[in-house]
Each structure stands twice: as structure tokens, then as C-alpha cells.
Amino acid sequence: MSKFDSNKVMPRYFAIAVVLTLVGIAVVGRAAYIMAVEKDYWTEVASRLVTDSIDVKPNRGNILSCDGQLMASSIPEFKIFMDFKAGGLEKDTMWNDSVDLICEGLHRIFPQKSAKEFKEHLEKGHKKMARHWPIWPRRIDYGTYTEVKKLPVFRQSKYKGGFHCEEYNSRRRPFGSLAQRTVGTLFGSKDTARFGIELAYDSILRGVNGKTRHHKVLNKYMNTTLTPPIDGADIITTIDVSMQDIAERALIDELREVDGDIGVAILMEVSTGDVKAMVNMRKCGDGEYREIMNDAISYRCEPGSVFKPASVMVALDDGVVDTSYVIHTGSGVLDMYGQKMKDHNWRRGGYQDINLARALEVSSNIGVSYVIDHFYHDRPEKYVEGLYRVGVNEDLGIPLVGYTPPIIRMPKKNSRGQYTNWHGTALPWMSIGYETQVAPINTVAFYNAIANGGKLMRPRFVTKVVKDGETLMEFPPVVLKERICKESTLKTMQTVLEHVVSQGLGKKAGSDLFKVAGKTGTAQVSQGSAGYRSGTVGYWLSFAGYFPADKPLYSCIVCIRKWGLPASGGGMSGLVFHHISEGVMARHIKLSIDDACDPSASMVPDVKAGDVMAAGYVLDRLGVKSARDWGGAAGGEQVWGKATGQQGGVRLARMEMLKGKTPDVTGMGARDAVYLLESCGLKVKLSGRGKVRSQSCRPGTPIVKGRECLLTLD
Fold first, then answer.
1. In this structure, what are the phi and psi dihedrals at residue 289, rounded to the nearest 5 degrees?
2. Which tens digit of pLDDT belongs to each residue from 38-48?
3. Are 176 and 182 in contact (CB under 8 A)?
4. pTM to 2 decimals?
């Protein structure tokens, strides 16, 4: 007989089934209630508990000069905070015991704020039980951060002590504002490039963000790296720090001298097109000059007479004229289609008859404009095509943001054969640098091509990208045009540009140490609809050229904008060019020790007048022969006299001293002259330094006790 009693067991199973069914219904009902009625509440709770995936920023790459010097680098900076809820009662006890020590320590690290002010500020946050209370309002460097971290409570972990920080990557330039517009900078803490190389190569410098997961484990928040960040690569630029410094100093000195408001200087390496220095200065409200705009690549203006070589090159290359072609410039004023074309010396009678080469040397507006108008008036498009051919209108494709290609308009005709964008004066004025828009970088690239045997190079700012000592990418020199003109034309232009400096208007740009070639430019600045002569006349002064002219290494352009006269491209911009070229070439000088020995140099010292007894003693010790002509002298007696050089030695002779008469102290040093005159009762005043050149009390005149005697030294 079975032991199973269904009458007893089945009711139990049924009861369990009913209970489970009710529980299931309750769960489903509760779930439905949560999904329908409490949906918004639990959605908000879930949003707070979702595991965060956080971007981790990589280290930004460095920007270096051509010789490896650091020009821009990222360093960590910190903003420090306090979480007063962290650590609970235990932390509160530590805080109350240590707050005075903490504030004293903060005052020592940040002396701008007293310990009392720190305490008031921190206690205010403590009362609020703030979770993210700023300890110091500004960012601090790593060294300062470690000092703060050593203070009581702050040295604890952030979960126990509450001290925590936010880390930023800050961009720093070790050379300050040097080449600032070229190197570029970032927008504050956003790690977003603003301009310059920083912006042009931002994707390379920036690197790739990593990913980390921020989640809570056992009441603590943990970060788990999902994808590590990839640091940015380093950029090697063409900038030479010392050349940049030379160019900047020379330009600022001249801007201050002439009261200019804009200054540009670009230095390029002829063979590669490497930009070794690029200076962009603007006068600010406080009178100081700073790099605000990259005018070297963006200030597109009428270049003036530095454009004339391009016009002459077109005419020579087309074979319509040669440099011996004579132009009658008359008295320096020529009527051209109702407008007066003037030479700079028209008030002095002009240049009369000169050939084309001389017209370029002296920058004759009439000489150049007459030739171009005479041979291209009926076909101006032929002339403009020539300008395009020689590369002055070339889009250089510079990677820096802000670059503006030149604007040199091409003549256009309508269906009836009439020019629609041209007028009679367009061609002559265009030939001398007006009615065109060219940035300084394009002008110097053109002159660089002349120096480079006719090869037009793209200006290069970056040579390669490196990371961890390995070259990732290289940027070789780029040739835009293999030849801008015929070989014969190029040789002629090189000779003429040398003559501009040696015997033309560009003499101040020259050097006694090496040959220089180039061209001056002085253009009036158009003020839009107001024209060229509204109020004070503005001038764009420039000098473009290269050096050494016989074996070119560097090309350079200097531009200055100023208002009012005097204004001279050769005398102002040319002078800056001179200082830059000599400063740069001085770096190339390598002297042999043998060069320091001059066999013809005299080893006889220059002896001042004065106590010839003392001079004789010194000469004996130096081994220099001295002839002495002063007769007997008692031991220790001073003998006043003069020294004259003679073959192989020095002749020392006594000076005649008349009692009661003013002695002759010319040629003496200051000490001997003052001693001798004041021992005679005169009061002595000095002006200058060196030997006495003149004395206000004439030698041989009667001595008046207390009389003042002025000695001028030189």
C-alpha cells in the first residue's frame, strides 16, 4: 500500500502554487507600476549610476627650431580644490587641528594672500561642506602643486583628506613672444589651436584621445583604461632662433626710430626656401610693438617699386627691349592719360635721358612705366601673362592660416572687343607696383627665385615630423617653377640689382663685408575710397633682396608702414636689411688663429702724456725701448712730459713748466691732468673719457687760484 496520501499532500502543493502565482503577479504588477508610474524617477536614478566613459587627452607634441631648440611645449598645470565631505568625522577632526598650519603653509607658497585670508576663505567652504571648493583661483605648476600636497590633511588621499585637483596641459614658449605668429598658440585650457604652425599641424601635434571607464567599486570610484592615449608627434620647423632674434631686434629699433605702426621682416634660405625668420610687428596702444597679425603672409597691399624688377624682367624676357634702351624722363613729370607720373626727384629736375638699367637703379617711375606702356599698351594681357610667368602672381600654397595669394588682374574684353576691367592708366601704374595686391611673402619668394638661378621655391616652415627619435614624415623643398625667365634675362637682372645697392638708391642696405643685391620700394598707402592723399599720407616702405650677391645664401624683405614724411624705402627698410644681413653673415665667419697675427702691426704701446718717470718704469718692464730726454731728476721726483712714438720704441721728453703759468695737459690721462692742475690751485671739471683733448684754461696763461678749468677728454 502506498505511503503517499494525496488528501494531505495536494492541498500543500496547491497552496504553494497559489503563493508563487501571487508573488509572480505582484512582481509583474510592480514592474508594470515602475515602468508606467515611476519611469521618470528610475530613469533619473539610472542616469546617475551609468558607468562613465571618459576621454583621456594625450600629451601635445613639441615645436622645435631647425637646430632642435624648444619653441613650444606642453607642461602640466593644476587647479586645486577641497572636498569637505570626504573622510567624515575623522577628517573634520584633522582639519580643525591643522587648519592654522595649512593656512600658514598656503601663505608661504602663495604670499599674495595672507594666512588670515586663506583661513576665512577655507572656513567658508567648510561651513558649506562644499565638495569642490577652490583653494587657489589660478592654475599652478607641478612644483607648486607638490609643495601644496605636502601640507597637513592635503597629503592624505582625496577620499580621506578631500584634497584633489584638475590637471590641464598648458602650452609654453621658452623664447616668449619670439616668432609668436609663426609658431602659434592655443585657446587657454581648451587645447584648441588658434593660428600659426600650432593650427596648421594641429592634427599631428594633438595626438589621439584615449578612453577610460569611471565606475564605482566598493564605495570607491575606479578608473579602468580602455584605450590608452597616443601622444602627439614633434614638429621640426625651419625657424632659426638666433636669426629670428636678429631680425626682430633690428626691425623694432627702426620702427621706434621712424614711428612706424607696422613692420614685417622675412628671411629665407635661397636654395631650399626655408623661412629662417619671420617677424610681424604692430604698434599697440601702449606704444610697444607686438606680434598681433601675421602681416607677412596676410597683409596684401600695393608693393610699390619692389615690383619694378618683375615688370622689367617681363620686357627683357619678351625681347621687346634691353637695358641700353634710353628713356627721356625729362624733368621728372610725364603726363600719362590725364594723370601725372612723377619721379621722386621731380622737384630737382628729374633724370632727363637714362637707359633702362639706370632707371631701375634709381627707381625711376617714368623710366619703367614708359617702357611697359609703350610696348604693351595695345596688348596689356601679354604683360600680365608675363607677370604670371615670372611667378610674382604664384599661389605659394603656404599651409599657415591667413595666407592670401596675390591679386593681379587679367584684362578682359567684352563681345565688342572692349576692355571691361581696364583703363588707360592701369598698365603704367601697375608696372611700378600699384593696382596690384601682393603680400610680402610673395615678393620675397620672387627675389629668392632671382637669387636661386631662376628656380621659384615654395616657402617652407616645417621640415619633418618626429616622435621618440624616429622620423614619421618629411617635407622636402618644393619647386614651384624650375625657371621664371631666360638665363640671359636672369643674369641681367642679377647685375642690375647689385648696381641698385652699389650705385643706386639702395646703398644703405649694402655692406662693406659682402655684396648685396636688391631693390627699394616706397609706395603711398591707399585709404580705400578716401584715396591716397586723405589727411596724413601713409607710406609702405620696403627693401627686398639677397646676400651675398655673388653666392646667394639668404633672401630677405623688410617692410615698414608709417604716416607722414620723411619716408624712404632704401633709407629705412634698407637700413634694417643691412643690420639683418650683417648679423646673419657674422654667424658664418670662421676665423683661423693665424688670422689674429698681423706681422705689420706695431707692438709699441700708445703712451699718454703725464708722469714720464712712471711711464719709463712701465716701458722697461714691458721690454720696450724708450729714449729719455729730461736730464737729472731727484729720486721720487715726478717729471711731467710727453711721449711720442718712434721707430722701435717711445721717446719721453720733459715738458717745460713755468711757475705761475697754466701747464699744458693735453694728451694726459684724467688722473695726471687733474692732479697737476689742482696742485697749481685750479678747480677741474671733466667731460668725456680717455685722453685730454682740450682745456678751457689756455696753456701759458697766468694761474688764478680757484678758477675753474674744464677738460674735454676723447
1. -105, 130
2. 777 767 655 55
3. no
4. 0.71
